[in-house]
Amino acid sequence: MAPPRWVSLRPMLTALELDALLLSLQIALAAVAVSLPLAVAAAWVLARARFPGRSLLDAAVHLPLVLPPVVVGYFLLLLFGSQGPLGAWLQEWLGLRLVFTRWGAALAAAVMSFPLMVRAIRLALEAVDRGLEQAARTLGASRLDVFLTVTLPLMLPGVLSGCVVAFAAALGDFGATITFAGNVQGETQTLSLAIYSLTQTPGGEAAALRLVLVSLALALAAMIVSERLAQRVRRQIGQA
Amino acid sequence: MDATAPPRLRVATRKRLGGFEHRCEIDLPLAGLTALFGASGAGKSTLVHLVAGLLRPDSGRIEVGGEVFFDSARGIDLPVHRRALGVVFQDARLFPHLSVEGNLRYGLRRAGARAQPARVPFDAVVALLGLGALLTRAPHTLSGGERQRVALGRALLAQPRLLLMDEPLAALDAPRKAEVLPYIERLRDGFDLPVLYVSHAADEVLRLASALVLFETGTAVAAGPLTELLEHPCAAPLRAGADAGALVHGRVAGHDAGDGLSTLACEGFALRVPLLDLPPGAPVRLRIPAREVALALSPPVDLSITNRIEGRIERVIERVAERADAPGPGRPAPHVEVQVRVGPGTVLAAAVTRESARRLALAPGLRCWCLVKSVALHADALLLARGRAAEAAEADQAGRAG
After folding, report:
1. What is the mean pLDDT of residues B265-275?
2. What distance lies between CA B361 and its chain's CA centroid?
3. Which of A6, B84, B199, B235 has an alpha carbon within 20 to 30 A of B368's alpha carbon?
4. Whole-number Å distance between alpha carbons of A190 and B317
């Protein structure tokens, strides 16, 4: 039986490099998975709901985009650190420790990429024809039913592109991750952190270049896959 | 005697929309096709949106077939999806991510629990609207007319108790419109389903409707059977222009297959028309266009024209040349419209050139004969009669049951 293709990367990448690659993928995927439902909810609220604190929420969602990533990481430490209100609660009730763990890295990546994902999804939501939703309502569908069977399928291309942008941003985060989750090899040392560490190590230039090429390939692959997917969905819903 | 009187639509609502207030007070039997007629922006579509629940009245009450949809006094506002109405919009609003069949079944699936077994079955709708060949197609590959037919079917399959149609043909060009119109007639006659039909097109209203609600500047000004309301000032566009004419009611008195003619017994006179595919006694409605009626001041002899109907001139109406795109006061039309009373409830209209009217000194009170060529009463006028075939059969049954 032929070994899976990635195994053949072994001769090209050292164990450290391979660790960083797989870890990055895991963390970025987890970040996207965790933030997706929240991002859809936030996009819906920002696009459709009218309430007094809306612009405040809008600002809060976009904060990670304008703050220095280190500051975001610092806030995360305050909130989710072992002494932080949320961190203590999570550790006590779920036994989940975030600081210096891959879960913490995923959280930092998720927070950093959240605004980008919300933006893309919100744009897609605002482009959905309200008339179609009205038609669905008159055909006997409740609000939730309409959202799941009409709105969501129609905004799928936007959701997909939001996921890809968020995935890329999560892969690339540096400041928030290193501040909140540290730079622990095999646990929180993602591609970006590994590249940084290698450039700081004498003789690490070649390995750093290899990882740079890997992240380049990863970003390109994600873009191509998402473009293909979005095109297929658009064709299916007649927007091609 | 009749325990199952038709359900009623009762609306008494106020709704502020931008600069003006939409007021509606109507109480109608829900049977057949009721046209909501008036100029654009007169409030017809608003009524449809209020009834469907897509707009919320500021105050008032809406009741359909005994169920209260909205009552501001009692704090009732039934959610849109529980009103069990079918709505056909001007733009078909098909779901682009579903196939034609997926669209058709969307409402059917959700009506499942409420209407079991389906009163309007899937296959019947597909057959009636000729959708069989389209089922696997995607909406964006359909023509405008096909799209509107699918929208009709989708609304029907939601098993509605009332079908609301909001200018369903307004976005279509003339050939597409002609393609879809017969399907609307079929669904009107094929299913025992009341229809509210918004339109500002006179030809659609005259062809389809049995009752009328007239709108003017946000207010429903009158409601009732079509024939009674045709004389209302707000119904003027229905009578206007080159398409002016009279609606005549009668019953099939007999057929003369050899000559290809049928005889209709109308109120006080008989009409010979091209052969009708209707049983004797069936009620028939037809429109006699004013331009197909000529006038004579003495009983005509040696004339090929079959229908000669005696009457008395009631009015001579000046017409303005009808050009919708010409702003300002129009030029006088080359003809005047002469209205001739030929029976207690029937007035025929004749388009007569201004010059002839002067030469014959046509004036109210004058006795005259209306001349109508039988062959002139073709397609246009008789489509009305054919569309009513199902209704005629029903009336026949009701008569026998009584």
Report:
1. 84
2. 36
3. B235
4. 89
Contacts of A136 in chain B (CB under 8 A): 95, 106
Q: Tell whether B84 lies on the interface with A, counting CB pairs under 8 A.
A: yes
ipTM above 0.90, yes or no: no
CB contact under 8 A, A141 and B106: yes
Sheet holding B245-256, edge to edge: B269-274, B261-266, B245-256, B283-289
φ, ψ for residue B259 (rounded to 5)? -90, -5
The two structure tokens encoding residue B330: 């129009």
HSE of B183 in the Cβ direction (CA atoms, 13 Å)? 25
Average pLDDT score over residue span B353-360? 88
Evaluate whether residue B2 is within a structural domain.
no
* B72 and B210 co-located in one domain: yes
Angle between helices A191-200 and A205-236 (to 10 degrees): 160
Check if the beta carbon of residue B185 is closer than 8 Å to that of residue B208. Answer: yes
Cα torsion B386, B387, B389, B395 to 10°: value is -140
Give CA–CA dist A192/B178, Å, rounded: 66
**Contact B87/A135, CB-based, under 8 Å?**
yes
- Write out the DSSP string of A123-188: HHHHTS-HHHHHHHHHTT--HHHHIIIIIHHHTHHHHHHHHHHHHHHHHH--HHHHHHT---TTTT
For residue B117, say if its preceding peptide bond is cis, omega within 30 degrees of 0.
yes
> In chain B, what residues touch A131 (CB-CB under 8 Å)?
89, 91, 93
Residue B344, domain extent: 245-385
Give the pLDDT of residue A31. 95
Nearest CA distance, B382 vs chain A (angstrom): 35
- pLDDT grade for B385, boundaries at 50, 70 and 90: very low
Binning pLDDT at 50, 70 and 90, where does residue B117 land? low
Task: Return the number of other C-beta atoms located less than 10 Å from residue A183's C-beta.
Answer: 18
**Highest-confidence segment of B91-95, B182-186, B357-361:** B91-95
pLDDT band at residue B113 under the 50/70/90 scheme? low
Domain count, chain B: 2
Which position has the higher pLDDT, B24 or A147? A147
Same-domain status, B376 and B326: yes
- Looking only at the bridges linking them, the beta strands covering B211-216 and B33-37 are parallel
Least confident window among A12-16, A43-47, A236-240 = A236-240
Contact status of B155 with chain A (Cβ, < 8 Å): yes
Same domain membership, residue B160 and residue B65: yes
Q: Do B95 and A238 touch (CB under 8 A)?
A: no
Spacing of C-alpha A177 from chain mean position: 13
Same domain, B230 and B254: no
Is B158–A140 a contact, with Cβ atoms under 8 angstroms apart?
Answer: yes
Confidence of residue B210 (pLDDT cuts 50, 70, 90): confident
Question: Residue B370: which CATH number?
Answer: 2.40.50.100
Tokens of B245: 């004419």
For A150, which residue in chain B has the nearest alpha carbon?
B95
Residue B107 near residue B157, CB atoms below 8 Å = yes
Minimum-distance CB partner of B97 among A131, A142, A154: A154
Q: What is the mean pLDDT of residues B355-364?
A: 88
A238 touches B138 (CB < 8 A): yes
Task: Please give the pLDDT value at position B347.
Answer: 82
pTM exceeds 0.80:
no
